[in-house]
């Protein structure tokens, strides 16, 4: 917690030291968020790269595409 007037730390409610130590000992993936434009649509994407990712190496790819919103919009246009 912080004192609003002096912006000094008053009391730390929870330090999560055990969690921090556990996470620091694990190799975690790097997460990137990007947007790409296709036609008139802006598509959001999330890229998870493994710990120790090397740009020049080859990795298997799993591509998940969420199309429910697009399909619903298309279906509404067809039915009207």
Walk me through the structure:
The protein has 80 residues and is α+β, with helices and mostly antiparallel strands. The protein has a domain at 30-79. It is built from two helices and two strands, in the order αββα. A two-stranded antiparallel sheet has the order 1-2. The mean pLDDT is 80.
List the helices and strands and how they pair.
Blueprint: H1 17-25, E1 30-38, E2 41-49, H2 68-79
Antiparallel strand pairs: 1-2
How much is the average pLDDT? 80
Inertia-based shape? extended
- Helix/strand-derived class? alpha+beta
Contiguous low-pLDDT stretches (5 residues minimum) are: none
- In whole angstroms, the N-to-C terminal distance is 55 Å
Helix amount, in percent? 25-40%
Strand content: 15-25%
- What's the arrangement of strands in the largest beta sheet? 1-2
Question: What is the number of helices?
Answer: 2
- Biggest pleated sheet: 2 strands, antiparallel
Query: What is the number of E strands?
Result: 2
**What is the CA-based Rg, rounded?**
22 Å
């Amino acid at each position: 917690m912080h004192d609003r007037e002096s912006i000094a730390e008053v009391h730390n409610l929870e330090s999560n030291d055990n969690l921090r130590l556990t996470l620091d000992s694990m190799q975690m993936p790097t997460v990137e968020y990007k947007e790409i434009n296709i036609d008139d649509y802006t598509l959001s994407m999330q890229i998870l790269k493994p710990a120790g990712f090397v740009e020049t190496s080859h990795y298997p790819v799993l591509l998940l595409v969420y199309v429910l919103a697009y399909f619903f919009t298309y279906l509404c246009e067809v039915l009207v």
